[in-house]
């Protein structure tokens, strides 16, 4: 089968890493896979290494950050660009004779249009809520955009029950399919070096929705009790929120307890070195870091919200806290600090569950089942 994916990004972020895992699984099953990316970056070499044909075609997003609505002139101009980009994609992929096209994000409409031009089935793969998790505002407004997603797709793949439930309001449940990722994790040869103490790690972009401020508040509570809790923050940053985080650290005199490392090419090495991994996001569509930590046998304390609540069995494979309740978060961290045997038990149970649930075999077979259904419609 000849399958084309369309990516909105060229780096190895969450959706792109899932795309790479999909390509690897599908090519190993003998399928011919091509991927359209907007430019060269970290993603393209990985895809080529897995046997995919990679073509470069810039494409315009139909979402932007913030709250500003576009004028009708801006909407008309952008819409014209979508058609131009889609036609460019059509011209590039027509020689590949694809049987189906899959758009790997909510952020671009050009894949759906290109599939129409090529008269082949189209699947939309939604890895995100959009507004709730990424603060996306649709150029053509959300209600019309969701209508467009529905009416230009044979099937729509989602990554969690929470995302399924969210889009069920706009797209019939018969068209939605939940497919579990594989979440490939290779144990780092050398764990990262962390400070002396009880080490809590967060691997996420420093942004309001990720909840780093809650972690810092909890560390302040525990340090006030004389506990040597060390918090390490790994990931890129939102400038305004990052400034707020640094001010919070200074306010509580936590410069020796909270460590901001920025983006890392080896975040798994920090998860592997942690005593506990925190996931404080209130709107996580899926929660890849949670699964990665589980596969590394690390206990996770997660906010009971959105996709995270689907991944943790409280007291069995990790612990929950009520999102926003920093006192409760501090209690859970302290409890695991005081009970090392429970940390080991949670980590082992989490590893076993994650390994059985998120595998390349399950992921590839799930994708192929949806693709087959789309081609039969």
Can you offer a commentary on this structure?
With 377 residues, the protein is an alpha/beta fold. It folds into two domains: 2-182 and 359-376, Glycogen Phosphorylase B (Rossmann fold); 198-357, 3-Layer(aba) Sandwich (Rossmann fold), CATH 3.40.50.2000. 43% of the residues lie in helices and 17% in strands. The protein contains 14 helices and 15 strands. The chain has a seven-stranded parallel β-sheet with strand order 3-2-1-5-6-8-9, with helices on both faces. The chain has a six-stranded parallel β-sheet with strand order 12-11-10-13-14-15, with helices on both faces. Strand 8, helix 7 (161-167) and strand 9 form a beta-alpha-beta unit. Helix 11 (288-295) crosses helix 13 (340-357). The longest helix has 22 residues, at 72-93. The model has no long low-confidence stretch (mean pLDDT 95).
Brief write-up:
With 377 residues, the protein is α/β, with parallel strands linked by helices. The chain contains 14 helices and 15 strands. It is globular, with a radius of gyration of 21 Å.
What's the helix-strand series?
A: EHEHEEHEHEHEHEHEEHEHEHEHEEHHH
Domains, number: 2
CATH superfamily of the largest domain: Glycogen Phosphorylase B
Largest sheet: 7 strands, parallel
Number of helices: 14
Number of strands: 15
3D shape? globular
Mean pLDDT: 95
Q: Uncertain spans, ≥5 residues at pLDDT below 50?
A: none
Q: Give the strand line-up of the largest sheet.
A: 3-2-1-5-6-8-9
Structural class, judged by helices and strands? alpha/beta
**CATH fold group of the largest domain:** Rossmann fold
Helix content bin: 40-55%
- Give the oligomeric state of the chains in this entry, treating copies of one chain as homo and distinct chains as hetero: single chain
Top CATH class of the largest domain: Alpha Beta
| CATH architecture type of the largest domain | 3-Layer(aba) Sandwich
Gap between N and C termini: 16 Å
Strand coverage percent: 15-25%
Q: Compute the gyration radius: what is it?
A: 21 Å
